[in-house]
């Protein structure tokens, strides 16, 4: 009988912990929703020619710029999913499986780099492609782990060019695990 009670106590404690994490995530989403404007709507059909061939990988998440662990929880931005990147002169489309496409208009692009960590995901050096963009008054970093890392430098150069950054500064970010 003692084992049954102990087992029930452990299960109840675990359920309480999961409930607390769920409430914390929802509270974070409410706080961020009060500050962040709605996401730009993805175009129904991209008419502009692609600047680069599309690439596949995983959408890692979005964070507040400069804070690689401050994950954005609004809508479905906080959830990882398989994704395809498409870049045109109009902007960047992150077409996510099981989630709404994320559209970043060219006018909102601020920078791009490779990095090793974002949104709780830590990789080897330059394992992530990170795009910095403006949503209302907030700067956000959105991370993508591509299936082929050899295309990152071309993506960084093209995204930086689209953002109006001409000089080639250091491409690697400085996130620490």
Fold blueprint:
Elements (H helix, E strand, L loop, with lengths): L1 H34 L19 E10 L16 E8 L2 E6 L5 E4 L3 E7 L1 E2 L2 E2 L5 E8 L2 E9 L5 H12 L14
Antiparallel strand pairs: 1-2, 1-9, 2-3, 3-4, 5-8, 6-7, 8-9
How many DSSP H or I helices?
Answer: 2
Distance separating the two termini: 45 Å
In what order do the strands lie side by side in the largest sheet? 4-3-2-1-9-8-5
What is the class of the domain at 55-163 in the CATH system?
Mainly Beta
Radius of gyration: 19 Å
Listing every helix as H and every strand as E from the N terminus to the C terminus, the arrangement reads HEEEEEEEEEH
How large is the share of residues in beta strands?
A: 25-35%
Describe what you observe in this structure.
It is a single chain. This protein is an alpha+beta fold and 177 residues long. It has a domain at 55-163: Roll (PH-domain like). It contains two helices and nine strands; from the N terminus they run H-E-E-E-E-E-E-E-E-E-H. The protein has helices spanning 2-35, 152-163, and strands at 55-64, 81-88, 91-96, 102-105, 109-115, 117-118, 121-122, 128-135, 138-146. It has a seven-stranded antiparallel β-sheet. The chain has a two-stranded antiparallel sheet with strand order 6-7. A hairpin with a 2-residue loop joins strand 8 and strand 9 (138-146). The model has no long low-confidence stretch (mean pLDDT 88). This is PH domain-containing protein. Residues 37-159 form the PH domain. It holds the Pfam family bPH_11. It comes from Goodfellowiella coeruleoviolacea.
């Amino acid at each position: 009988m003692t084992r049954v009670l102990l087992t029930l106590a452990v299960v109840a404690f675990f359920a309480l912990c999961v409930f607390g994490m769920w409430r914390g995530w929802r509270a974070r989403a409410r706080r961020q929703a009060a500050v962040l404007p709605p996401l730009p709507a993805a175009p129904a059909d991209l008419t502009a020619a692609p600047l680069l061939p599309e690439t596949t990988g995983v959408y890692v998440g979005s964070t507040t710029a400069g804070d690689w662990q401050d994950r954005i929880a609004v809508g479905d931005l906080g959830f990882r999913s398989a994704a395809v990147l498409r870049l045109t002169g109009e902007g960047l489309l992150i077409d996510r499986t099981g989630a709404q496409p994320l559209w970043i208009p060219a006018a909102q692009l601020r920078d791009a780099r490779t990095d090793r960590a974002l949104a709780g995901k830590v990789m080897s050096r330059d394992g992530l492609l990170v795009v910095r963009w403006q949503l209302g008054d907030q700067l956000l970093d959105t991370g993508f782990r591509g299936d082929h890392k050899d295309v990152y430098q071309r993506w960084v150069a093209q995204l930086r060019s689209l953002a109006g950054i001409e000089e080639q500064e250091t491409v690697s970010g400085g996130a620490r695990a």
